[in-house]
Amino acid sequence: MIILKTDKEIEIMREAGRIVAECHAMLEQLIKPGVTTMEIDRLVEEKIRSRGAVPSFKGHHGFTASICTAKNDVICHGFPDSVPLVDGDVITIDIGAFYNGFHGDSGWTYAVGNASKEIENLMNVCHHSLFLGIEQAFAGNRMGDIGFVIDSYAQQFGYGNVREFTGHAIGRELWEEPVVPHYGSKGKGIRLKKGMVLAIEPMLTLGDWRSYVENDGWTARTIDHSICVQYEHTVAITEDGPQILTVL
Ligand code: MG
Ligand code: MG
Known about the structure:
By secondary structure, the protein is an alpha+beta fold.
């Protein structure tokens, strides 16, 4: 079932989104060689709770941490650990905050120290593909229009575009229907409507788009162990077009 949100509900979701954005602003300063993802997890949880919210991911389908981490060839849903980040790593931190009954969700990739030019280019293209997708999130357009622009842009650079994980609608539940694929056909898929709120979150790789999930049942890696990056915003479809909710 697709649940449309009222303007008032979108205002609450903007608050949830702002809390997530505040966490990412903190990480920009924090992420450097030597820091562990367990430390990041603790600091993010503290920040979320200090704002009167709770971490969306903790307990979600049994996930035990406040953030999802995805280092190098991990695509998504990795657990924080005590391994210090090293110069040249690339790490995605996915953060969700549940505030006043609603979720905000945004994942962001950070270079640890100095990224190679190859990884920097991948990050730039993935980041831009997110904003191309967001531009398509307006009433009357189709879901396939979002995926089409992301996929065709990524293809121009020969990057792998992960298909086995998608974006999703979001609201009182973290994962609501419908899914938001990051590939698709122009003019195809369900009609987008005012009041839909979508987490758009393209994941691009330097190699194969295919993935496998580790024995922990969560951690997803690229099948060829190529580097994967991701950028995600929670976006409301309004009368005035797409509005990004996970911003300061
Ligand atoms: Mg996320
Ligand atoms: Mg998401």
